[in-house]
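Long-time lurker. I teach an intro course on protein structure, and each term I like to show students one example going from raw sequence to a predicted 3D structure in token notation. This year I'd like something fresh instead of my usual example. Would anyone be willing to generate the tokens for the chain below so I can use it in lecture? Attribution to the forum is fine with me.
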Amino acid sequence: MKNNAARKLKQVPADYLIIGVDPHKKTHVAAAMTHDLVVHTRFKFSNSSDGFKNLVQRGQDLISKTGSAGLFFSIEAAGHYWRNLGYFLDSYGIQFRLINPFTLKRIRDGKDINRRKNDYHDAEMAAELLRNGDFVETILPKGIYAELRALYSAHRRLVTERARMKNLLKGLLDGIFPEFTQVFKNICGMTAFQVLSICPAPKTITSMKLEDFVAAIREGFKGRAPKVRKLYDVYSLARTSIGIETASDSVSLEINFLVQRLQLLSNQIQETENALITVLKAIPDSAYLMSIHGISYMSVAGMLAELGPLGAYHNAGQLIKMAGTNPTEWESAGKRGSRTPISKKGRPGLRWCLWTAARSLLRHNEDFRYWAKERLERPAHLHPLKVREVFGAVVNRLLRVAYALVKKQTYYRIPLPAATTEFALAAVI
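-- Reply from a regular --
Happy to contribute to a lecture. Here you go:
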């Protein structure tokens, strides 16, 4: 039986000096500790090249004083301030591990009844947790994987910002022209953008003749042709609109600004997606994942950006824990919880990417659809899954399949005979 705790303890030699670091924006705090839990020194160093070099130099001096065989750093992964130090240590070949801030806080509060909290104490706790094997194994994204992750993070931020802009635009339209969304379900369409950028207020539309309104929309239109039928409908609804006319000119100006920003965001998202696909095709592992029928480029890009090289993991269970989709049980005094939810302790961006990929697989992949149908409709004594539980199971199966394909360097093949039956999940996909 594999013992992860024992495997982690073997990674930290007993004769190494452990330096715990509590990172901050300008000044970091460090505490040097040997395996016998004796703290030899505590000091601060700046978040700069000179500060990092001073840290390593002081560590080397302590090696000779304590008779240690080497250095091992333990860094609390609070925010993003640890990243610069992590890459610096990695460039010098110095080993380090990350400490989960939640783990550090709980153990610190449990050991100290006074609930003492200061930076030096946190640095000491980080070193002690590394010594006890309570750390996170770190894989720094490098090379093309680092490029992929940076692009995917930028894409997620742009998509989030576009959604925020769209919601703000809809809120303004609900006040000035609530009937507009009855005609244009997608307010980011070309024709809708053209109308909103020229005459978003009903009074502006009705001040023109129908022919002049259509001609104004056609002028400068970027696309094949505006949807004239919808323009007629908008003009008709504008004549009986219940929109608020008070301050409509100012609201129209803000709507114009939002349309310009949405157009810019849409162009930036498209450019980012093109760059993502280009980088993704340069990664050899992506070809094995793209062989899974029903999965998109963006889903594969999200998986590899969040997880990095899949071959660096020991098993597929690590991928599931990274996503936070592993089932968690609750039991006390012989009583069990009525549900078995997922932990949600992993990366939310990865979980979102996998959830959308699972929806696509259940639509287009016969193997996954039949596999999910079996678990949804199995007899009561075999504990059939509910719809939401099936989605979680499909996500975990996708991670296991992806890990196996990359590990074995093979392409996905649907088992025979393939299922063609429909099932109840279609109602929620």
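Some talking points for your students: The longest strand covers residues 39-46. The two ends are 40 Å apart (CA to CA).
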